[in-house]
Each structure stands twice: as C-alpha cells, then as structure tokens.
Design a protein that fits this description.
286 residues; mainly alpha; two-stranded antiparallel sheet; 11 helices; 4 strands; 4% strand
C-alpha cells in the first residue's frame, strides 16, 4: 500500500470516527433507557404484549408489521428486477447480474445436490426462504421507527424474532417437504415426512432463539449507559449480519436435505437368485 492509499484510508477512518462521535453527542441526552425497566424491555421483546402497532384498525405485533414490510419490499423488488433488469442481461455480466446469477446458481446447485430426483420447485422455495430470512434480519440495522398504539416509538424487529413468524416459517417448510414426498412417493412420502414430527418445532425454535438472542443482547447493550458508546454499533452489526447469514444457510440446507430424503424414489427390490437344488445323494455317490 503506497502513501496515497494510506492517506485515503486514514481520511476514511477519520470521517467514520467523526460521524460516530456526532451520533454519540446528538443522542447523549436521550433518556429512553429510563422510561422502562430492563425487565419490561426484555419481556416485551419476547411476548410483544406491551407495544402494538395499528394496522388498518387492528392491533398487531411489531414483528408482524415488519413481516408485511419485508414481503412488500421483496415483492416490489422482484417485479422491478423481472421487468426492467432481466431483459437487459448480457453475455458479459455486470456486477448486479453477477451477484444475481451467483445467488440463483448457489440455490439451484443446492437443490440438485441434495435432491437429484425432484428439484424443479425446491430451488425456488429455498431461494425465497433464504432471501426472506436474510432481508428480514438485516431490517434491524435500519432501525425503522413506528408509532405504537400507546404513542411510543419503537423500531421494527426482525419478523422471525416473533415466535409466530418463526413457527409459520418452520411449518411452511415442513409442508413443503411433505409436498415433495407426496409428489414422488404418494402416501409413502407422507409417512416418511411424518416420521420427522419434531422437524417444524426444531426449525422454528432454532430461528426464533437465534434471532431473539441477538435482539436481547443488543437491547441490553443499548439500555446501560456505560456501554452505549460505539459498542452498540459493533454488537448490533455483528449479531445481525451473523444471524442473517447463518440462519438463512441453516434453514435452506435442512429443507433441501429433508426434501431430498422424502422425495427419493423407493429402491427396486432385488430378485433373489435361487441356488440350484442339490443333487440327490445317490447321484453324488455314483
């Protein structure tokens, strides 16, 4: 690295440090941590029984509101990409085309590797599930504020940090796995899927526990004033990015593995070759 590059890096780090210091000074007078006890904050992060969001006259959890927002963002993004971007793809891909092809190729290869017999639909599902988990988890970094029915301002959590969202993702994935078993083996595929009766619970609680733990750790760091300088930024980014990548990878890998297992056609029974009958003892003695 030459002197010009070193100087540029120092300037960048200096600008980042100045921005962080300005943020600290601008938020130093906030007394949000004194309004509620840490017990109330932790309990509401799990149960969502204090802060509710008004959705067309219906009180819903902030996690559900975040789920609606993520679904709308992904739907609009998919429509825009399909109409305005994909028709302009070239043989020599640009940056966005390379990233998109890399993602699609990864999930397509994952589906073909784990389910070589029936994988046309599975690639699309695990792609959608992985993108939803990643996008919904990264939503926490933006700190989108909403006004609750009590007049308080809260930031939208990850949709799957709500136990209801995690259960729906687990049960939907389980039903998708069962559909692969039915398509390949009929009633036998249902039996093979029902053997893994604990699968939707394990997938749901894995998602819920991992995402909620990151949210709780971040809330604790923000709550205590002596840790609220620079540390929340590092902790929040670290937990959010790790959980977004790891949980998206784990769920898509589990779905593809179990889908491939239940959709595998039964092996044909091998015909036993009967051994020739032993000759009579009389003939052997002759």
């Amino acid at each position: 690295m030459d002197k010009k590059q070193k100087k540029t890096m120092l300037i960048i780090f200096g600008v980042i440090a100045v921005i962080l210091l300005l943020g600290i000074f601008l938020t130093s007078g906030s007394s949000a941590g004194e309004e509620e006890s840490v017990n109330v904050i932790m309990r509401d992060a799990v149960l969502h029984n204090v802060h509710k969001v008004n959705f067309f006259g219906i009180e819903i959890n902030p996690g559900l509101a975040a789920g609606f927002l993520v679904t709308a963002i992904l739907t609009v993004a998919a429509i825009i990409i399909r109409i305005f971007v994909i028709p302009k793809f070239t043989l020599v891909p640009g940056r966005f085309q390379s990233v998109l092809e890399l993602l699609v190729g990864y999930f397509d290869n994952l589906s073909k590797t784990n389910s070589p017999h029936l994988n046309k639909i599975m690639g699309g599902y695990i792609f959608a599930a992985g993108v939803y988990i990643f996008t919904g988890t990264m939503l926490e970094l933006f700190g989108i504020q909403v006004i609750t029915t009590t007049g308080a301002s809260v930031s939208l959590p990850a949709p799957l940090a709500d136990i209801n969202g995690a259960l729906m993702m687990g049960c939907t994935s389980y039903l998708f796995i069962m559909s692969g078993g039915i398509a390949a083996n009929g009633f036998r595929g249902v039996i093979n899927t029902l053997k893994e009766y604990s699968l939707p619970i394990s997938m749901s609680f894995r998602l819920f526990g991992a995402l909620l733990s990151g949210a709780l750790v971040t809330e604790l760091v923000y709550y205590y004033s002596h840790l609220s300088v620079v540390v929340p930024v590092l902790v929040g980014i670290m937990f959010t990015c790790l959980h977004a990548l790891i949980q998206a990878y784990v769920l898509t890998m589990l779905v593809s593995l179990f889908y491939g297992e239940v959709s595998e056609p039964p092996k044909p029974k091998e015909k036993k070759i009967k051994a020739p009958k032993a000759k009579k003892a009389k003939e052997l003695t002759v």
